[in-house]
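Hi team, as promised in this morning's meeting, here are the two structures we talked about. I've kept the exact order from the run log so nobody has to guess. The first one is mostly here for context; it's the second one we should focus on when we meet again. Sequence first, then the predicted structure tokens.
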Amino acid sequence: MGVPVVEHYRADGKRILISAELHIPCTWEVKSNDQVCVSDERGTDCCRFQRHKRNRDEYIIRCPRDAAMHILKVEDGIPEF
């Protein structure tokens, strides 16, 4: 906990999670209007996304795996992976 994480999502369903200690390739897919499921070596977690009311380039994410709330900032530009 408390470790900065960067996640890159591509339109083809690929995702990569990068932190100081981790470099985890994953896949993702939209399951409903507000739910995205991510699969990696630890299993599958389906998280609920809600757009932030004031900051329109941010989403609030709730995932059952870690029982926490995260804030995700959306930016253009995806590196190759």
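And here is the second protein, the one for discussion:
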Amino acid sequence: MTRNRIKISVVLLSAAALLFLSHSDAKAAGPVESFLQKMNSSLVEFTYSFSTKGNMTIKGDGKATVQGDSFFVDGNGMEIYCDGKSRWTVDSYSKEAIIEDVSEVGQDFLTNPAAFLSSFDKVFGEPKMSKGTFSGKSADVASFLPIGKSNVSSMKMFFAQGELLGAELSLVDGSVTEFKVSGMNFLPVDKEKVFSFKDKDLDSSWVVTDLR
């Protein structure tokens, strides 16, 4: 699953730029604050497309659902389930699944985006607001810089009339991931929503690696 894991890591890293807001206590201003409040009190669904430029050029798209510290991402032939405690990376085509303990994924945000999600407020400072453009549209730009050592060098989020257009994530290796978001729906919190994966229901043809 090595090559696919690299691809899905980029997908998740892109999605993480949106998902982190669901449980970040970082200071915010303007459209970021408004967006944060909506994320904190909703089950959020959206679709996205992304493009990464650098040592490896990757393009793709996917859809995501997030509620609190749990999320589901479906993109590039891979599915990621996270219930806040465990994370399942599932490749149904190759019949492979990897299970990890979210609490032990560490601070490697490139390969462990769950750590990125749960530690945003510890990694980034208060955003600086400015004016700019995104995909040819005028936008309010929220720029974030890391507080300490991180794989991420900067983050930008782009808003128009309070709506999130997309984001740009720059890594210290010089690569940049840009993604566009669409169809973002803020739904009532669903306490019955399940974000875990039933790995025990898989038959013997699957290769399951449990790292917990």
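Starting points for discussion:
The longest strand covers residues 176-187.
Residues 127 and 144 are 5 Å apart (CA to CA).
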